[in-house]
Design brief:
The chain is built from eight helices and ten strands. With 227 residues, it is α/β, with parallel strands linked by helices. The chain has two domains: 116 residues, Response regulator (Rossmann fold, 3-Layer(aba) Sandwich); 97 residues, Arc Repressor Mutant, subunit A. The strands form three sheets. A five-stranded parallel beta sheet has the order 2-1-3-4-5, sandwiched between helices. A three-stranded antiparallel beta sheet has the order 6-7-8, with no helix packed on it. Helix 1 links the parallel strand 1 and strand 2. Helix 2 packs parallel to helix 3 and helix 6 crosses helix 8. The protein is elongated and about 60 Å long. The protein starts with a strand and ends with a strand.
Length: 227
Amino acid sequence: MTRVLVVDDEAPIQRALSVNLRARGYEVDLAGTGEQALQLAASHHPDVVILDLGLPGIDGIEVIHGLRGWTNVPIIVLSARGAEHDKVTALDAGADDYVSKPFGMDELLARLRAAVRRSTPADEVATVETEDFRIDLAGKRVSSRHGEPIRLTPTEWSLLEVLVRNAGRLIAPKQLLAEVWGPQYREESNYLRVHMAHLRRKLEPSPAQPRYLITEPGMGYRFVSHT
């Protein structure tokens, strides 16, 4: 059965979507805030997300970024913000479709079915546990094994995220540079060396003999959750 996460702070919208989706055989989870949406997504692994942008707490764009840190679940934005730049911002952040309020239920359901058809199942995790630290991909946080926060810069986080999302796979330096800094930095290998050294000092029990952030000389970098 397809599970849908509906994220909207308007009770009438929640009720209307819940009734219509459940009548058609969908399982439905409801969230009224961005924080609740990320928690439910991590625990229930929905097949599709219907997301409002104007939420209390963190807004819809931040929710998209949080989800895209660890999952490719289809995201359909359902928002009263109908300006072109709002649509572009949401789609650039990682949304798959955009429906403006007020909306037709039949159209929304058709877009939902199309999004589910296009999606491909994948093994996805919201957190990565090692003996020495815990990575929360949805919340974009790292903590020690004792639960103490480990502060990373945005660049350090981006680098770690790419490696963790491709755990076990060798990532070439040019690919890492392009994904973290942009395609114009594909030759700046010194950037990688500096930031990898910073990450190892923060995460590795013995930075000179890394267990998790591995360098394959002349080939690239690899994240392994255990040895």
